[in-house]
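User: Please predict the structure of the protein below. I'd like the answer in structure-token form so I can feed it into my own downstream comparison script.

Assistant: Understood. Taking the following sequence of 172 residues as input:
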Amino acid sequence: MKRGQKTPGFTIVELLIVIVVIGILAAISVVAYGTVQTNARNKQVIAGAAAYNKAVMQYQAETGLIPTIEGCLGANYPSNQCWTGAPVRSVNASLDTLLSPYLSNKPTLATSLMNMDGTNNRAGLAYIYNFPAAGQGELRFYLNGNGQNCSVAGFSAANEGTLTNCYKRFSP
């Protein structure tokens, strides 16, 4: 090699620039993946809520009553609970049996609980009887993130902690 001739290769500055660009691309990918996962989970819950809303309305049209049994709707909840804190709500086989004639299959709504406020966790969908007043029922589901669109006709939305509470009340 002659004096003053450069050896082939990358300088430290060039290597640092490449590493920084790769780091930025990786960070963008991780954030985008989290958003895609959240949107997919929310759409899954909305589809299940629409199916159960239809089932409750068909039950009411056929019997003239609303279900008087409380419980989680859907499948795959951790420890069969869709609601922790006060009170705990669990899957109720009697409620499933009551609504099963109006469903083609039982929707899978959640595989993990979402932290609402540090002490209470929610997932999927619950039917609550006697809420907010005696003789009323409520279908309630939670979406990850504030200000989400409930996307099911007749449902209202309210932010609760880091989640969007979507609910619809039924009267006999």
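That's the full token string. The chain is about 35% helix and 20% strand.
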